[in-house]
Amino acid sequence: MSDTGFFEKVYQVTALIPYGRVTSYGAIANYLGASRSARMVGWALNNSNKAEVPAHRVVNRKGLLTGKHHFKGTNLMQQLLESEGVVVVDNQIQDFDKIFWDPGKEL
DNA sequence: ACAGTGACGGGTC
DNA sequence: AGACCCGCCACTG
């Protein structure tokens, strides 16, 4: 778990996202010190894709549910978010700046 | 080994 | 404001 610290941290931070909150890949990447490797964060989640990692709470900078295509169901990601009180319209999170959770700022 | 691609982000046109 | 390009690192063909 030393070499894979990157993936581990991604899982940790993602799992620490509070209920009804969301964050962006860039925020996590920045927290891990890989601000320019936001893609790796998404790739890490893709490798995880487990219940312990609420990837549905992680979206891109625009608050768009870009990763919904990788979920089981097309609308599963949106369903989960809406179940947590997050308003999602057209795959885009409303009040994204309100429910945005910054790991390096609030953690 | 090389090239293309991807759950992104920021800068530029 | 919208579209396009580059950089980043890893995986697949």
UniProtKB/TrEMBL annotation:
<dbReference type="InterPro" id="IPR014048">
    <property type="entry name" value="MethylDNA_cys_MeTrfase_DNA-bd"/>
</dbReference>
<dbReference type="InterPro" id="IPR052520">
    <property type="entry name" value="ATL_DNA_repair"/>
</dbReference>
<dbReference type="Pfam" id="PF01035">
    <property type="entry name" value="DNA_binding_1"/>
</dbReference>
<dbReference type="InterPro" id="IPR036217">
    <property type="entry name" value="MethylDNA_cys_MeTrfase_DNAb"/>
</dbReference>
<feature type="domain" description="Methylated-DNA-[protein]-cysteine S-methyltransferase DNA binding">
    <location>
        <begin position="6"/>
        <end position="86"/>
    </location>
</feature>
<dbReference type="GO" id="GO:0003824">
    <property type="term" value="F:catalytic activity"/>
</dbReference>
<keyword id="KW-0227">DNA damage</keyword>
<dbReference type="InterPro" id="IPR036388">
    <property type="entry name" value="WH-like_DNA-bd_sf"/>
</dbReference>
<protein>
    <submittedName>
        <fullName>MGMT family protein</fullName>
    </submittedName>
</protein>
<dbReference type="GO" id="GO:0006281">
    <property type="term" value="P:DNA repair"/>
</dbReference>
